[in-house]
Design brief:
Elements: H1 2-8, H2 14-37, H3 42-47, H4 59-65, H5 68-101, H6 107-117, H7 126-136, H8 143-167, H9 171-179, H10 184-195, H11 197-212, H12 216-221, H13 229-239, H14 244-264, H15 266-278
């Protein structure tokens, strides 16, 4: 009975485990390779590229963490990611709420516009967008110049996730609040937003991680001291191309904030996505 039950749950097939382990190895392997080799010297890397650190060295990581240049890149990335997340989540929930709770003409066609927006990644419009931001908006080499386009392209996935979550909220709560004298904005602020917290965290993390890892748009719009951390990794790799261990340490540290945020909130992200699918 237990074997039948395991197979019914998809847990008894060894091929599933083999495929899962292969996917995990392909995903985690490069990250572990970079993190471990950041603890080695260049001589150790040259003599045994696949070996473990022996002895373990901390000077690569300590030189990165004590570098003012690294913290300048990190500050720019944090500011751009925070602005992107703030705008994407704020605008997304304000767009998703009427699409979920109000009945009006062209509601579904308007929602389809956001759905179709999923088909157009940022890279497809990167050149005209960079010209528009720098020439017409005069926001070249500023945090907002990168954050606003990134938030705009994060808006479709934000609305698509939030709308079914908001539609699933009981109408009785809204009606009771209106009977008690609350306004529409009060219902949105005091009921819809608190109950949608799992979905808001989900879309917030997705927007933050997407902005943190963004490379092409910051490359076209940011110069000098405004450059973000992915551009810093490229600059460091070019400047210290012979210091392979140092480059690996720099790259590893650069990925940590987004990785820690994602791992810390992965449970809420799954709950938010499940709520969106059920809705």
């Amino acid at each position: 009975m237990s074997t039948v039950s395991d197979r019914a749950r998809g847990g008894g097939n060894p091929a599933v485990y083999v495929i899962a382990l292969a996917v995990v190895a392909l995903s985690v392997g490069p990250v572990l390779y970079g993190a471990l080799n950041g603890f080695r010297s260049n001589e150790q890397l040259a003599s045994n590229p696949a070996g473990l650190p022996d002895p373990w060295r901390l000077d690569n990581y300590s030189s990165v963490l004590t570098s003012g240049e690294f913290w300048r890149y990190a500050t720019n990335s944090m500011a751009v990611a925070a602005l992107t997340t703030l705008v994407a989540v704020g605008a997304g929930v304000m767009a998703a709420y009427p699409l979920a709770r109000y009945d009006f003409r062209f509601r579904e066609p308007v929602f389809m516009v956001f759905v179709l927006g999923l088909l157009f990644p940022l890279a497809t419009a990167i050149i005209p967008l960079s010209i528009f931001v720098s020439r017409d908006l005069q926001l070249s080499n500023t945090w907002w110049g990168v954050a606003l386009p990134q938030a705009a392209f994060a808006l479709p996935v934000t609305v698509v996730i939030l709308r079914p979550f908001l539609m699933a909220l009981p109408r009785e709560l809204e009606e009771a609040a209106l009977i008690d004298g609350s306004s529409r904005i009060g219902v949105f602020w005091r009921i819809a937003l608190p109950l949608s917290r799992p979905a808001l965290i989900t879309v917030g993390v997705l927007a933050f991680v997407g902005s943190w890892n963004s490379y092409l748009l910051p490359l076209l719009l940011l110069q000098g001291e405004m450059r973000t951390l992915p551009l810093g990794v490229a600059d460091y790799s070019t400047q210290y191309s012979a210091d392979t261990a140092g480059v690996l340490a720099f790259t590893t540290v650069a990925t940590l904030p987004a990785l820690i945020l994602f791992l810390a909130l992965q449970g809420r992200i799954v709950n938010g996505l499940q709520g969106a699918v059920k809705g």
